[in-house]
Amino acid sequence: MIAEVIVDVPAKQTDRPFDYVIPQSLETVIQIGMRVVVPFGPRKIQGFVIGIKPHSTLNKLKEIIEPLDLTPVLSESLISLGNWLSEETLSYRISAYQAMLPAALKAKYQKKLLVPKENKPLLPQTLQSLFANQESIMWEEAKETGYLSLLQQEVTKGHIQIIYEVKDKIKKKKRLAIRSALSIEDLKTYQSTLTQRAQKQHDVINYFIEHNDWIFLTDLTATLQISNAVVKELVKKEVLEESEREIYRDPYANRYFKRTEPLQLTNEQQEAIDPIHDRIAKSMHEVFLLYGVTGSGKTEVYLQSIQKVLERGQEAICLVPEIALTPQMVHRFKGRFGNQVAVMHSGLSAGEKYDEWRKVQRGEVKVVVGARSAVFAPFENLGLIIIDEEHETSYKQEENPKYHSKDVAIKRGKQGSFPIILGSATPSLESFARAKKGVYTLLSLPKRMNNQDLPHVDIVDMREELRSGNRSMFSSSLLEKLQVRIERKQQTVLFLNKRGYSSFVMCRDCGYVVNCPNCDISLTYHRHQQQMKCHYCGFEDHVPTVCPECQSDHIRYFGTGTQKVEEELHKVLPEARVIRMDVDTTSKKGSHERLLNEFQKGHADILLGTQMIAKGLDFPNITLVGVLSADTMLHLPDFRSSEKTFQLLTQVSGRAGRHQLPGEVVIQTYSPEHYSIQLAAEQNYDQFYEREMMIRKGLKYSPFYFITLITVSHEQLMKALDVTEKITTFLTSRLTKSAVCLGPVASPIPRINNRYRYQCLIKYKREPELNQSLKQILDQYQQEVTSTSLKISVDVNPFILM
DNA sequence: AGCACGCCGACT
DNA sequence: GTCGGCGTGCTC
C-alpha cells in the first residue's frame, strides 16, 4: 500500500502530498492521521499520513521508516479542517496541521556525524581525538571545531557517516508502580519464610495481602515508611513486580473545586437559552451572538448549554481570551463539570498541554476550556462551541496560519451541524452588524443579574489637572476616592493601559528618542535589568546617561510603567498595600493565580495592573476602578483603536460593584471629549455602535468591507517597494470596481530587523477571485522568496494593520 | 527548509 | 591546476 504524506517542510514547493510505500510489516499499523518518519532527500523528516491508496503514479518510491504514533493524532475531519484552514489563510498544509496539535507533537531534528568503531583508526590524527570517547558528535559541535572540510573529506571517503534523526519531543510522564507477583496464598507462604530481622519486608507483604492492586512506588514507600531498597529486593526475588505507569501531569491536581449546581435562571437568561437548547436538541447549526452587559450572567448560560450538550452524549468547547481570566473561569467549569473538563491555555507547560490534549483525544473529558487553539480540540462528536469575549484580539493568530478562532468555530459548527455561541458585553462591530443583518441570531442580556446598577463613571480631564498644578499621575478626584476605600477597607483596581505606549527614553533638551538600530521603532526601557530592548528584533543596549545627539544629561525615560505607578502610589498613600500585576510579576508559573488569590483574600487594598486584569475579575469587595490613562491606545494607527478603547474601558468599568456594594469608576484621560471614552463611561454600546459604524462606512473599513493586508519585506528598501508596487498593480487589474487597493505604503513599522516593510491594503465587498490572485502572487515570487531575502505575508482579515 | 550539484575567482 | 564561493533546482 502507498501512503500520501505531507512532509514537515514549510515551503511552497513541498506543500503537496508525497507518496511512500508502506512496508509490509507496517501495513496494519499505519493509518491516516498518523505522524510518520520518512526519508526526504538525504534527510529523515516527520510527516502526516493524509491518505492511503493501493497504487501510485510514480514507480520508484521510498518506504516509510516508522510511525511516530500508536493512534492517529489527526482525525479525518481534522485533516479536512486543516486543508480548509490552509486554503483560507494561504498557508502551508503542514503549518495548518501543526497549528491544530499541541507543540509537543512537533518533531525535533538532529544531524550527527557517526564513526563506526572499525573506521576510527582510518581517521587522520586531528580527528581521532574528536571521536576518542564517542562514536558520534552533533553537527553543530562539529562546526565549532573548525575541521568541517576535513570531516567532509572523510564523509566522501565513507569513513564518517552523516545521520539524521527525528526526535519526538514528547515525554510521557511515567512513574514506577508495584504490585504483587504472587497470589495471596503464595505471599503468605513467602512471608512465613522471612526471618525476624526482615521486619520491613514483612510489612510490605502485609500491605499486598490486604491490597491486591498496583500502587506507585513513591506512595508505597511513603505509607509504609520504608526505603526503595526493600521493595527492589522483593522485586528481584520476583515476589513483587514493577511496571512503568504513564501518568498525566495535572496542572490542577490537589486542587479542590467546590461542586456547583445549575443556578435558577432569570427570565432573561431563560429567554436567551431557549433557542440555544432548541438548536442543540435539533442538531442545527446557527450562530448566536449573546450580547450581555458585564455581570449579566453569560457564564451560567454557557454552563447550562454545555450541560444540555453533555446530556446528549456530545462534547463542547468553550474558548476564553487568554490566561487572564482562566483561574476564575476554570473554577466555574471544574466546579460544574468536575473532571470532565480539560484546560488548555498558554500558562501550561508543553507537557501539560500535551496531557490535556490527550485527555480529549482519548475521550476522557467532554469539555475543553481554553484559549485560541483549543478550537481545534480533537473531539469527534461536538455539540457546541462557545467563544467568550468574542471581540478579543487574542483569538486571531498573528503567525501563520493567520486564523481567527471564530471562523474555525463556525466552520466546525457547519460541518458538525451544531450551534456556536459568541458572547460579549461589547461585541465586535463585525459580529453585531451580522447579528443585525440576521446572519447571526442576537440574544440579549441587558440587565445585571442582581439588578445592581452599573457603576457610576467619572471622566477626569488630565489637562485640567495639569493646569491646576497637579503633575502626578493621580488626579485629585482619584486620590480622594482611593483614600476613602482604604479607610472603608474596600478594594480598588488600578488599570494602566500600556498598549502601544511603552516606556521610552527621550532627551528633554533636544527631543532625541533612543531608537532600535535595526527597526524603526523606539527601544523600550526595562527597569529591572537596566536595559533598553527592542520588542521586535530583541536588540539590547545600555541605558544612555547622556544624549547621543546633544550630549545633554537631561535624558530620561518617559511613559508610565506599572513599577513607576507603584512607587508613586507608595509616596502618596504609604499605608496602602499594593499588588502589582504585569509581565514581570506574573512570568513565573502560577504567580498570576497566586496574586489574584492574595488580592481576593484581602491582603491588599489596591490591585495595579495592565491588560491582564481587565477581564474576569469578579471580587465582591472591589468598589473602585481607576483607569490611569484611557487614551493611550486611542491614537494608534489602527482603524479599530476607538473600538478597542471603548471595549477596554467598558470591560474595566465592569469590574466594580458586581455584588452588593455599589461601584465607582474613574477614567483619567487627555481627550475626555472623545466619543469612545464618553460612551464607554455611559456604557452605551448601542450608540457607540451607530457612531463607529458611520465612520467605518465612510472610510470603507470592516464590517462594510473585507480587508486583506499584504506585507512585503526585504533588506533593500527599493526591492520591497518595487515588489509591493508590482503586486498592487497586478491586484488592481484583477479586482472588481467596488474594491479598493491601497499601496504601496510603508508599513506602520517601516523597518524590522533591518528589513524594510511595505504594504498593500485591499478593501473589498465580494471578490471570489481574490484568493486565486493572491496564490498567483505567492507563486510568482516563489523563487525570489527562496533565493533572496524577500518575504511576502498575506493576512486575510487582519486585526492589526502593522 | 536543507542539501547536492554545478559553475567561476584566489590560492598552494 | 584546486578549494570553496553561493546561484539553481529537487526532495516520493
Automatic annotation (TrEMBL):
It catalyses: Couples ATP hydrolysis with the unwinding of duplex DNA by translocating in the 3'-5' direction; ATP + H2O = ADP + phosphate + H(+). Binds 2 zinc ions per subunit. Zn(2+) 2 binds at C516, C519, C534, C537. Its cofactor is Zn(2+). Its EC number is 5.6.2.4. Zn(2+) 1 binds at C507, C510, C547, C550. Residues 542-696 form the Helicase C-terminal domain. Residues 279-445 form the Helicase ATP-binding domain. InterPro entries: DEAD/DEAH_box_helicase_dom, Helicase_ATP-bd, Helicase_C-like, P-loop_NTPase, PriA, PriA_3primeBD, PriA_3primeBD_sf, PriA_C. Belongs to the helicase family. PriA subfamily. PANTHER family: PRIMOSOMAL PROTEIN N. Initiates the restart of stalled replication forks, which reloads the replicative helicase on sites other than the origin of replication. Recognizes and binds to abandoned replication forks and remodels them to uncover a helicase loading site. Promotes assembly of the primosome at these replication forks. HAMAP family: PriA. This is Replication restart protein PriA. It comes from Cytobacillus stercorigallinarum. The gene is priA.
